[in-house]
């Protein structure tokens, strides 16, 4: 009798070399520990905190990641645009307008003969760019996928909690999981929605936490104090690993368990 | 010998009557369970999801809350503005410009002779309104408070994670805790910063969770699908209680423990 | 020998009763003075400064307007939504998503047997709402219109000058005119683009000029000083009429003349 | 008997080398033609369209400009920040927070013994950055200037028409003129407000008009079509000169005449 579940790990925004090293260091252990079958990772900040590069993509793939999703920062490194066309393992949000480099969803084989999984990368618009509607784009992709896959994983890269939550309800029962990225802070609202879709507003960042969402503290504070440009420099210290593991049942592809990972834990004292 | 610690509970954005009832129902038990000495609550959505009213303020005070903070929605109900002047238990963000109704910080007695605590309410500006600088306003208030209080609690009501985290670092070692509100989603990043300030990006909402941050799902999704106005209607179902409990040591007022509360827990299945 | 030209007047955002009265008072004279064949008017602020009503629509039509365009404020009055469906003389921006009330373009007969004119209402997205792309929507509408009309008039309701100008260049040679609304200030850049499209960034407001874009000065200034809500009240004094007259040649529908009207003139002293 | 008036020319956002050359070519003739006593120029886009440089500053000064104001793009060229400290002829918006490089107002001698003029550079916040309040900053500067100067000229660099107009009314009778910049499109609303302040929402750009506010058309359109970064490249063709000339009477410094200049005129055909 075959395996009845599939476990997917989704790693949140990997920031710069500190984040890449952390993934390289820990991922294989986590895969074993959590019996993970498939790994997805948001990489929009992998290249020094801004965008991706072929090198950072390769590092993630070698570390054990199968699919790398993106976001608004995917466009920060012009040199990466060609790679978006040539490498099916890397996605950018699907709801960028037709004519944009690369693609926003793909169907991938889960190792071990566990079937196929579709990964969809979407981006929100509230406080971000007026690209195509993520809700209708999701409808369209799901229609394309019809009957081809049992498992559908959605990375919703967005700023506003309301937009992510609305998408979760909108897709409940139609996809396996809707997990958010972009804010670089892990939220504690992981849950299984009533019709079986796993949901979490944000996975959080895999990167240096003595920072302001990955950036050196002084520059980040100065930007706010003076509202003038201050050079982005990737922070380096106190690197943590942020991820979510979702367990899908094999019959309908619904989420039967969702678990957050944040490692190592922050100092919370003792009450 | 006297008590060496003070425990403060901070309840996140209470939404409408469902949220108010939840506070009324659970707060006294939580106070006992966690040995809480002082309760602060963000109430900007208490009046049907939009602003406050004298009635909702009284309900919170009767339920056991000592100080009610606000945010951008404080201004949603014109009828409440006078109450801002007459009731020292209610605050609005201090960094609204001089000339605005009400005040944004206060000094309060902790019951049981445990000394005084200052509560400061601040609001972010990223993706919000261009009010006064929350960083410099914090500096100014802290200077006013000099030597008057041992404990200083900051509610930073803001949208962007970067702005809240930056304020946390900016105030580390100068206040007892910096806890965020406004996004209505609890974050999992509660921690004690290196110099002793308790920090959490967002406490999350105390209100109906079968909703989009408290609003009925259909209206909220329609707003995003059509980008036209759809009447705000407060949701009602699946009410949860969101809070953070911070423990301050009595000598310097630093945080020695920080703990999130989300009750009841969401369905997360079993891995 | 037939008439070789068609003259279209486009009146900018009519604000409240003061604006409606001004149109009623002056339009027929202006039509005569400028030999106008067809009148279009942006009415998004006709109903007390916020949205439209059936009554204000009728007032505009009776005053001599043939088509009334809209904008973001079209949605400010819920009671008007049905009228959007029943009255083909009123448009709302076409690039609101499918499923929105009303329509955003129409074909209308020019009185005097001068042929048909299409009017397209579009809305920008920069600093506004993330609706469908106005550029691609224009492409789509133009395709629908193919060979049905000689004259195409576009009202681009937008905030950012860059977005309006970009649309002007994008449509140059494909439509008769691209004229902007929404900022309530008339711009002095009316021109004929190289391929024959008439262009002006904004027609300006037809309404009370002792105001802040139609609103009473004190409330408007207080909104900026305090960043809190202050009741919108329509101003009343110093009403001016703002319009543009474009002259199209009859063969290809290109603009051969463009002229701004602002009446009465402001006091500019004497140099 | 001495001269009873002072004439000030204000040149709108000079864009790149095309704009600089235009100023060099035409300014001296315009000074003669309009009997201009003092020239102010917004230079935030002088350095290849983005920020300023010492070289572009010198070119403007040599061409006959006395004071160069700035805006949000002042910060686009890091190399210029030192010059902000060393050259009193260059200003940046005064309402950037304390601690920012440079200053935002100055008192300057009008050649010919015509007395002193203060120039104040302010920046709006709507759709821009949450810097200090431009209204209150204006109050503060005017207080500093008390009795030192007869003429006060304000460059309000802002996006929203409402914010500029509100500032005009707010300062009416307290300064000689409030003239806007930043949108790069000249507005036709130049006027003398009731208490004697000259006002115009935007002077417009001195730069290449076969462009989108100075940028090459294709890149600008692509930015809007795809919402991804496209390299800013300064356009080159069809350069126009945009300015306003205000005439102040010598007793109280009020505006007695205001005139727009846009040279050469656009093609407007013949009605
Ligand atoms: Fe990111
Ligand atoms: Fe992002
Ligand atoms: Fe709230
Ligand atoms: Fe809020
Ligand atoms: Fe309008
Ligand atoms: Fe509008
Ligand atoms: Fe500019
Ligand atoms: Fe600017």
TrEMBL record, chains A, B, C, D:
Gene Ontology molecular function:
2',3'-cyclic-nucleotide 3'-phosphodiesterase activity; metal ion binding
Gene3D superfamilies according to UniProt: 3.60.21.10
Q: Which residues form the active site?
A: 73
Annotated SUPFAM superfamilies: Metallo-dependent phosphatases
Arranged from A to Z, the UniProt key words for this protein are: Metal-binding
Residues binding Fe cation 1: 13, 44-45, 184
Binding of Fe cation 2 occurs at: 44, 72, 157, 182
Q: What is this protein called?
A: Metallophosphoesterase
């Amino acid at each position: 009798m075959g395996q009845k579940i599939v476990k997917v790990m989704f790693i949140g925004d990997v920031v710069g070399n500190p984040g890449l090293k952390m993934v390289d260091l820990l991922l294989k252990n986590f895969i074993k520990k959590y019996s993970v079958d498939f790994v997805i990772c948001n990489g929009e900040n992998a290249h020094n905190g801004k965008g991706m590069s072929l090198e950072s993509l390769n590092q993630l793939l070698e570390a054990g990641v199968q699919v790398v999703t993106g976001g608004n920062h995917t466009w920060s490194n012009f040199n990466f645009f060609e790679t978006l066309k040539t490498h099916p393992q890397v996605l950018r949000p699907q709801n960028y307008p037709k004519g944009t480099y690369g693609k926003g969803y793909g169907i991938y084989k889960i190792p071990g003969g566990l079937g196929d999984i579709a990964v969809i990368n979407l981006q929100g618009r509230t406080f971000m760019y007026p690209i195509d509607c993520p809700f209708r784009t999701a409808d369209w992709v799901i229609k394309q996928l019809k009957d081809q896959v049992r498992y559908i994983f959605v990375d919703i890269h967005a700023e506003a909690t309301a937009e992510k939550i609305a998408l979760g309800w909108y897709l409940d029962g139609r996809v396996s999981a809707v997990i958010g990225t972009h804010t670089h802070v892990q939220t504690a609202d992981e849950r299984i929605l009533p019709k079986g879709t796993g949901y979490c507003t944000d996975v959080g960042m895999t990167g240096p936490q003595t920072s302001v969402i990955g950036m050196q503290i002084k520059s980040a504070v100065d930007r706010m104090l003076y509202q003038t440009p201050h050079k982005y420099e990737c922070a380096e210290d106190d690197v943590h690993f942020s991820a979510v593991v979702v367990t899908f049942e094999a019959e309908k592809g619904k989420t039967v368990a969702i678990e957050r990972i944040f490692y190592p834990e922050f100092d919370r004292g003792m009450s």
